[in-house]
Amino acid sequence: MDARNLVAVFGCLHRHLLALHRIGVCGDDLVSKLNSRCRMTFDREMAALDAVSRIERGEAVEYEVVPL
Prior knowledge:
mainly alpha; 3 helices
């Protein structure tokens, strides 16, 4: 799956975050829910942070997206 329209991707994420906020999910509960939905393990989180660091240095990066 390719996410080609980043405005749409982030718009959708924003709508979902607002909906969670409206029902009182915030702080650590929000982080936990996002990690769960993204199937974010410690190793995947460290790989994502490494990818961000590489992007900051101007390197090309590929990161496996796990379908939900």
